[in-house]
Design a protein that fits this description.
- With 116 residues, this protein is mainly beta.
- Helices cover 0% and strands 47% of the residues.
- The chain has a 6-stranded mixed β-sheet with strand order 2-10-9-4-5-6, with no helix packed on it.
- It starts with a strand and ends with a strand.
Length: 116
């Protein structure tokens, strides 16, 4: 069973930056499109960003477009999310998964808290 381990979250002031990482335990995930998703308190999990297996194609939710950048290093089986100009509404637990997501493969996520 593949494992996805997210890291890099923390507490940051509005306008600050964080870089999230997602490490996959199996190299096969390097052949999948990957995505970042987030779940804010009391809300459903939502799509944030996705990247093709080669890294050549990316797409973002309108709410983060221009502020977040997704990237990947297939040699390290790792996907990144650079988050700039963070806003309080970005506060959530952030998860990575294949896109479309593989049920049952969700990691524990990493908590991002943005203070105003």
């Amino acid at each position: 069973q593949v494992q996805l381990v997210e890291s890099g979250g923390g507490l940051v002031q509005a306008g600050g930056s964080l870089r999230l990482s997602c490490a996959a335990s199996q190299r096969k995930f390097s052949s999948y499109a990957m995505g970042w998703f987030r779940q804010a308190p009391g809300k459903e999990r939502e799509f944030v960003a996705t990247i093709s297996w080669s890294g050549g194609i990316t797409s973002y939710a309108d709410s983060v477009k221009g502020r977040f950048t997704i990237s990947r290093d297939n040699a390290k089986s790792t996907v990144y999310l650079q988050m700039n100009n963070l806003k309080p509404e970005d506060t959530a637990v952030y998860y990575c998964n294949a896109n479309p997501p593989h049920p049952g493969v969700w990691g524990r996520g990493t908590l991002v808290t943005v203070s105003s």
